[in-house]
Every structure is written in structure tokens, then in C-alpha cells.
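queue> holo job accepted (pyridoxal-5'-phosphate)
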Amino acid sequence: MLPGPEAARLIEIDKVYVSPSYTRIYPLVAEKGEGLWIYDVDGNLFLDFTAGIAVCSTGHCHPEVIAAIKKQADNLLHMSGTDFYYTPQIILAEKLAMLAGGKDGNRVFFGNSGAEAVEAAFKLARWHTRRELNLAFFGAFHGRTMGALSLTASKTIQKKYYNPLVPGITHIHYPYCYRCPYNLSCPECGLACVRWIEDTLFRTTIPPEEVAAIFVEPIQGEGGYIVPPPEFHRELKKIAEKYGILLVADEVQSGMGRTGKMFAMEHFGVTPDMTALAKGIASGMPLGALVARADIMDWEAGSHASTFGGNPLSCQAALATIKLIQEKLMDNAALQGNYFKNSLLELQKSHECMGDVRGLGLMIAVELVRDRNSKKPDKSLRDKIIQNSFKKGLLLLGCGENSIRFCPALSVSSEEIDTCLDIFEEAVKEATR
Ligand SMILES: Cc1ncc(COP(=O)(O)O)c(C=O)c1O
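queue> job finished
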């Protein structure tokens, strides 16, 4: 019976003291994590296909990450990279700058979260270009601070009563081809969504020479794990280059090996001008990083900083995480992601409610619909399946309006995927019975 007595007791206290703005959808009170598995405070065991919202990339409490944190904790907890130097931050910056590639070199700004990485990109784009306007996409999630929230266009509840937000941002359609906003189909559409920027927007309302940056998720995350067509980012980059606009990739959810490549943009053959990173970068320690081309990150001393950003523990956790990702986890994400997606596509054949199965690597979603013909979104079915899965010991999260995301640790095994699939299918059957 869930929640167990201790979980129920703690949740009652939480109800009194913790901000009611959080969106807990089931009563999991986590106590201990190991690999893909979570124990709750009553000793119940769960298979975690959320990785703490795509964060615990190496699995819960990977021994090498824990050892790196412990070793660093014995030496130095904090000194503030804003005002002093310390080794882990310098070494991590060098590592990230190299990973981001490009021929002109990169520099790194450190914060504590995805929102801070995006916020830094937002400010740097203005600083470097001296331009005021920006483009972002409907369905995008870039974070909750006022700048990042202004770029976000995911759910109105995230913006309600917070206006006025930062001005000068125009949202445009993302290539959500399963439900094309232009009612066209790809590739016959000729990427109408990209052409619209030049043909309509830049001709009618937005002078391109006033646009600082285009913010884009390589794969839209909170919006529904939406994978754009192969040419999308290349075409976007062409437009950006033509008008001296910076292309900012928000890889907070899609980055750090999750899609089977270090950065999801690599699947599209595009090197962005800036990349925002967080979530999976440090296996659960708070860390955000903005990696920008060296000639773009040209702001002067004092123009931006963060007391805790890039603290020694998080940097060591990130260095251990990146080592594991490069050694084997990125390859495992590609391999297991393939197996997982193909298995879901197989399952889709016998379940009319599984409208769309999509994703890259271990960033996979199933979109739930009334039936495949009408494609009518079925949010309540999605919610039921997540609840049923929880009761059967599988942790899942939603994304978009009516999709379920699967974003396990990159260390997931095929046996764990099989267990997830068995429980998921049972949960679907029970919800549609
Ligand atoms: C693509 C993307 N950008 C930014 C953020 C914000 O990250 P944080 O919650 O760490 O501020 C998220 C969080 O889900 C995200 O998915």
C-alpha cells in the first residue's frame, strides 16, 4: 500500500511547511538510491526511469562520483570561483570547452542550475551583440527565473501573475511534426516553420539586425521530447549566421550523453554559438554551465558572476561524470536507447492509445491519444498510466500535454528496460480496460 506509514507521515509535514508550488504527482518519499533503483522511507523499491528529471546520468550514487565528492569534501568545500581560483573549476572549464568543439575555442561560465545557464546566455547575447530582441519557441522550457521564464513558452501556469516579464522575446513554432502547427507534413513542407522566420517575421515585425539570439532546445524536453527533422537546426543556423544572430542551444536536458552523443546538436551536425548545460552534468550535484565561443564570451570583469556557481564539489562530480559518460555510458545510451525505442514501437502495434513513439538515445517519449486516427490527446489516460506504474514500482514522469517521458540513467541495462516495459504495458492495459 502506497504511501507507506513513514512516507504518509512525512508528506503531512511537507504539506504544512514546503512550498505548495511544487508538482508532486505521486507520494514517493525517496530515501536511498543505487543505480536505477530507489528505496523509499518505508523500504519499498522502485525502478527509476526519471533519473530525478534526467539528472542522475550515471545512476544514483555512482561509486566513482561519490568518491570524487568525498575526496574533494575533505579538502575544500567552497571558495567562490567568482573571486578566487581553484583547480576543479579550471580543469572542468577546460574539459567542457574542449568537448563543445568548434574551431575558435570556447569559454565557460558556471552557475548552479539550468535556469542560471540560460540566464547567462540571455545576458551574454545582449552584451556581445548590443541587440535587444530574441527568438524562442512555443513549447520551450528554459527555466523559472525571470529571464529564462520569459524565453519559456511551455505552460501558462508557469507565467501566470508574473507579468510583466522581460520584453523583446518573440515565440515561434517548433517543428512538432506529429501535430504540425501549419497542418503540413515533413519533408514536403520544405521546413515551412523555418522559412516563416525569414519570409514573414523578418519582413513584417522583427528587424533581424535587432535580434541578439535564437534560443532553441535541440530536442524539446518539457514540451514533449519532440525531435525536429534532421535539417531543422542546420537551416536555423543558416538564418542566424546570415543576420549575425547567435544560436543558443539549450542542452540542459538533452546534453551530456543522454541522446547517445555528448550534445544532441551533434545529431544535427550543428555547432551552436553557445550551449547551456545543467541537469546530467554532475550526476545530481547542482551545476549549470554556459559554454560559449571564446570571441563571444567577451564581457568584462564584474558584468556577471555567481557566488556558488561551479563550486568545487559539483565540479569534481562533473569531472567524474564526464569520464564515465565518455568511457562507456554514452555508447550505452545509444545502444539501450535503440533497443528501448524499438521495443516501444513494437508495443505500440498492440496499443491504439500509443499515438507516437519518439526520441533519441535515452530521451524517449510516448504520446497518449484516444486513437491513432483522431490523434486526440488523452491527458487523463497519460496520468492514469503514470499512477498505475508507480503503484507497480516504476517511476515515470509526463512531458508535453499528454506524453510520458522515459529518461533513465545512462547506465540502464536491457534487463531493466525489459522490467520497465513489462510494468508499463500492464499499466497501459489496466488504464484502458
Ligand atoms: C531544456 C531545459 N532548460 C532549462 C531548464 C531549467 O533547469 P533548472 O530547473 O535546473 O533551472 C530545464 C529544466 O527542466 C530544461 O529542461
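queue> The first helix runs from residue 5 to 17.
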